[in-house]
Amino acid sequence: MKIQYIYGILFSLFLSGCMLGPNFTSPEVRTPTYFNNDTLKSAKEVNLIWWKIFNDTILNNLVTKALHNNNDVRIAASRLEAAQINIDYTKADQYPSFSYGANVNASGLSGNTSSSLNFYPQLAWEVGFWGKYRRLNEAAQASYLASEYAQQMVRLSVVTAVVSTYYNIMAGYGQLKIANNTLATRDSGLIIMYDKFETGLISLMDYNQAKIQRDVAATTVPTYKRLIVQNENALSILLGETPHEIETGIYFSENNYSIDIPVGLPSELLQRRPDIKQAEALYQASNAQIGVAESMRWPSLNLTGIIGGASSDLSNLSSMGLTWSAGASIFGPIFQFGKNKNRVKISIQNTQQALINYEQSTLVAFREVEDALVSISTYKEELNAQSSRTYTAIESEELAHIRYNEGSTTYLEVLEQQRQSFSAQLDLLNNKLNLVNSYITLYKALGGGWLTEEELNNN
User: Which site from 20, 282, 387, 455 is most exposed, i.e. has the minimal number of CB atoms within 10 Å?
Assistant: First the structure.
């Protein structure tokens, strides 16, 4: 009997090694040979510490602080830790569980009393027929990877937001400087125009037109002040701090933002983008659930065992004897109106959805890279035209004042050239900001902005 019992256990272990459901294989994705708008067409490695290309020590410190203190990053780290714990939690179901118990009984009748004591450790084990628990463990490990990639996505998003907001602040100071300079010039001009109006050299219409242009410049000053503070508040939250003023580097317009970026091969994008890797991990987790659903259609074996001591007399524990018992039971579904079969179908459809989501993630990734590349190339073209326009507009404003003072033209020409010059300077600065944000967007699209704690501390 004992040998047969051992054979039964070994047979059960053999069956537990069989796994139902499809084994996971990474999905195949056709990738282009190179990105259409990649001007370098090179396979160089993307720089993971990409924000250092801007050569701004203040920015580097802000990014480091955000990666350590940002609340979203801290939440993502906690989720990753929970996913790691879940692997061990799920893995425990594969093994026998041990517990203990004890009981004392006493009874009496007409002066006669009796008592007994029992204590025992107990083993219970649901043998994982058909690889049920191995598939559950596979799903847990894939979910952990998905959490790890999700953490990388959060870190990438935080870095991107910090860099973008920082340059929005710097651009805001640049815009404010242009607005203040324009306002100061128009204030001085308005004083002169008022003196001319008082002496009858110009009409009230000319004076009012000059005042309108002065007021236009005056309204932009508080606008840019407001935007600067709002962006500083946003960056403070990204740093995990209360709103405060943010220190910035050199004047925004003095930076050189014409940078050649190696984007690498399109096929490498599948390995660099954390959202694509997360989608693949979720697909694997969903695929493993098919095996779990399949195993629930078949019988399961439960083994139990007890070995312990018992005494029929509490006053004489030396009479305690050894007790044991062992048992096995098989449970399996017979007819449940298609419930188990439909559970498998649901798992298959969930897996199909996860695969489609993976495919969609790759398509979106390629589009985002191409969009960022074409944005960089076209904003560079615009920058040349905007620079020429700004230089010409400033020169034309100066000439218009000279012509007006000489009596060669009306004051309307002066006002128009002032408006053109002010608009051109702001547009040039906005163009540079758009170019910077395009670089930031490209690096995010390339998945080249996340770092592990070890990589961050070593750089």
Answer: 455
